[in-house]
Amino acid sequence: MEGFFKYIGKSVEKIDALALATGQPLFTDDMEIKNALQIKSLYSPYAHAIIEDIEEEEALKIPGVKLILSYKNTPQYLHTTAGQGWPEPSPYDTCMFNRKVRYVGDRVLTVAAETEEIATEALKHIKVNYKILPAVFDPEEAMKEGAPVIHDEEGISGVYDARRNLVAHIEVKTGDIEKGFRESDVVVEDTFETHYAQHCPIEPHVTITYLDEYGRLVIRTSTQVPFHVRRIVSQVTGIPLKDIRVIKPRIGGGFGVKQEIILEEICAYTTYLTGRPARYLYSREEEFISSRTRHPMKIKVKIGAKKDGTFNAIKMYALSNTGAYGTHGLTVASNTGSKTLPLYNKAENVEFIADVVYTNLPVAGAYRGYGATQGYAALEQVVDEVAEKLGISPIEIRKKNHIRSGETSPIFRALGEGREGVTQYIQSESLDRLIEAGAKEISWSENRRKKTGKQSKVRGIGMAMLMQGSGIPAVDMGAATIKLNEDGSFNILYGGTDIGTGLDTVVAQIVGETLGTSPDKVIVYAADTDITPFDKGAYASSGTFVSGGAVYNAALKLREQVFEYAREKFNEFDTKEFLIEDGEVISKRSGRRISLSEIAYETFYVRKHQQLMATASFISQSSPPPFAVHFVEIEVDTETGQITPIKYVAAVDCGIPINPELVKGQIIGAIVNGIGYALTEEFEFGKSGKMVNPNFLYYRIPSSRDIPEIVPIIIETYEPTGAYGAKSVAEVNINGPIPAIGNALYNATGIRIHKTPYTPEKVLKALKDNINK
Amino acid sequence: MKAHFTINGEKKEFEFSEGEVLLDLLRRNGYTEVKGNCYLGTCGACTVLIGGIPRASCVTLAAQVVGQEILTVKGIGSIKHPHPIQKAFAEKGAVQCGFCTPGAVLTAYALLKNNPSPTVEDIKIALDGNLCRCTGYIQQIEAIKYAIELIKGGK
Ligand code: FES
Ligand code: FES
């Protein structure tokens, strides 16, 4: 597309980058707020208990303690913290504070005091009496008759079978699965388990609330979903929605965890009751023990294939552990099937079944990849197993079975976000090219297993093929307003929520391209519920596609107005041959031209007397998948069990990359996050269900020294339903590391590990078991 | 207690308690460009330079660095006059959310002061203490290499 577009496909500098690199006060907690109450929380030390009483009198006597909130004095309004569109597909199974605590780390109460020290001190003077209940940590146990019932409260809704701790049960079938297996030449079945992990944004959750000059409540918060925050805080606290303003400043990363509303309602309620500003900041430890995590799953995949490698039947069963509350339980599990199975649409007989189960462990929520990560961990390894059994290469079997442009999969319709999905046909796809480009870069060959100079070290190469979506079809809406200023610059006011991804820059490029203006003359103001139009927020890979789509639609509308003004001025019949470039409208027919600046001056002050501006929304009926093919070469030390990724290649089709440098950043960032998940990051639990490694010393996320050479290869396609041909890119690449490394490990050593992460201990044990076999 | 510090070249007097860590003292006094909240020296977001050496301000007692030269990211450049490292980070996609950026930029600054031509391995070792969850480090490393060119070219 080089040369075709002026600003699309160009690595325009991220508009906030220099401000961030020079340390401007842009984040939630960078605002100085005088006299703010500081909020600290008390957490349950028990995995399952009823609070019988809270003795708080002593604490309240401490000078500087202003307010203690618990179930005793807060509205008992059942809701979900999921931060999804309305009506939420997650169960209403929690209150601001619950009388029953359901995991170690469940919030019991908060203290608001003049200083953090006083609040922390006060916590020590509060006595909570618990009636301890039996707890259950294993999802399979939790479903059994006689297991402790975790949600037995009155009035919960959206839970499939609370008595069996079953949050959701999903069953989707196409074709005749048993017949499909019977008619297959080979059938392979295997089961893989994934583990608890946390998003670890370097900025933890933080919220600041205060009353403005008119007594309205302002919530400045590190959120991915400002409009859902406004709605849900109002719902939970009873504060009228019109009295709440949510401001999203710069956000220090989210990856899904800031989609949850977990601080805002309490901080808001504290300000509402006291009239005082309040600040509620999570520590790193709280981020681990009491925010949200990735759903651990156990996934069984069974594939039946013909001799030539064509898949005949695929069956997937996912058992998902949502922890103590059901937030995102149903939808994450839906995505485990809906974002993976359509990739292999040659199989006519497909079955997907999932159970989502409560346990007395930390709460799972949305995490980049959103269930697809877990699905691919299993699916892509079983695909390799089928290939091996048939004596076909992993590349050939994928080429034979992947979805292609113009094709569909019945799963798209059968399985949506916790409800029926929508039929969609793939309109942009280049999987064969992705496979070839990636294979070439990694030097793929049938004999790719390599010895190294050292006896104990072997190398292997593995691959994985992936897709995701772009927004939630027929549900997610974004909106934007654009207006023209006297110097030909534009303001965008939109609800889109840039949490570090660069979305604000992408939309400036979209407006620049559409309105013939350099992106540095586009001023982006985002996500303030008083000022900008609605947007669903940052999740489901919807930024460029949905929020960008809204901005594009608004830009088109505004361009019509600009053209119409020019047409009147030029005295022409129509605007068919009008161009807009370099800040000017030009009629190719007459050669006449007028600058955007002149148009603004004239429409403001001379004729018309009108602000040229447009507002538009975007909703998509489809969710075009970005595709990726990953290859990784690893080195395995058979003496220590250590796996070291040497080179990682990701060939990616995200449609037209609006900003290649930013796309590259999304690809690499997701891969490194995924490598951490595959190799080192893991929640460790004590006997009581307590997470015992809540810090970066013992929960190891990758540092600069842990990364391999990473080669992102962007292969352009054109997605006709996306603004300037773009699809999403934020999530898809986190799905690759587990299966690609798993397949590489098998290639190098002949072992397959069925439970992530691939730690040295597990590798050593598997190597030993393999020898003894 | 009360004592003097030199922060970004300016002499300042602050009041602080014996056990207060430098991170808290700095943020409390408006140096919000210093980020971080792990308080274990494990994330690097709170990095400042003390006498030119990168230190985690969350595990450094204010009392320990009385009278010393402290440099935050604002001390090496501004939006109008960015340091080449800041410019390079912005240009090369090394800033995503930007929360780790002040720390990473300062670490790079100290590295290049000591070693104007580091290898990629040197850069990786230097950045080891500055966790970034967004970029995956590659663009940060590329930015530092680019900054070296900018500095050599006198830009
Ligand atoms: S806050 Fe100092 S290293 Fe994390
Ligand atoms: S840019 Fe977000 S943590 Fe580094």
Primary descriptors:
heterodimer, A: 773 residues, alpha+beta, seven-stranded mixed sheet, five-stranded mixed sheet, 27% helix, 24% strand, B: 155 residues, Ubiquitin-like (UB roll), 2 domains, binds FE2/S2 (inorganic) cluster
Model description:
The complex is a heterodimer of chains A (773) and B (155). In chain A, the strands form seven sheets. In chain A, strands 3-5-1-12-9-10-11 form a seven-stranded mixed sheet, sandwiched between helices. Chain A is globular and about 90 Å long. The model of chain A has no long low-confidence stretch (mean pLDDT 97). With 773 residues, chain A is α+β, with helices and mostly antiparallel strands. In chain A, α10 (372-390) packs parallel to α18 (737-749). Chain B has a five-stranded mixed sheet, with helices on one face. Chains A and B meet through α1 and α17 of A and α2, α3, α4 and α5 of B. The complex binds FE2/S2 (inorganic) cluster (2 copies). One FE2/S2 (inorganic) cluster (FES) sits between chains B (95-101, 132-135) and A (202, 253, 500). One FE2/S2 (inorganic) cluster binds at residues 36-39, 41-46, 56, 58 of chain B.
Oligomeric state of shown chains: heterodimer
Note the beta-strand portion of chain B.
5-15%
Major sheet summary line of chain A: 7 strands, mixed
Number of domains of chain B: 2
Number of strands of chain B: 5
Please state the structural category of chain A: alpha+beta
Estimate the mean pLDDT confidence of chain A.
97
Please report which band the strand proportion of chain A falls in: under 5%, 5-15%, 15-25%, 25-35%, 35-45% or over 45%.
15-25%
Question: What class, by secondary structure content of chain B?
Answer: alpha+beta
Largest sheet of chain B: 5 strands, mixed
Query: Radius of gyration of chain B in whole Å, from Cα?
Result: 15 Å
Helical residues, percent of chain A: 25-40%
Run of helices and strands of chain B = EEHEEEHHHH
Mean pLDDT of chain B: 97
Bound molecules: FE2/S2 (inorganic) cluster
CATH topology tier name of the largest domain in chain B: Ubiquitin-like (UB roll)
N/C terminus separation of chain A: 55 Å
Shape of chain B: globular
Helix content of chain B: 25-40%
Count, helices of chain B: 5
Shape of chain A: globular
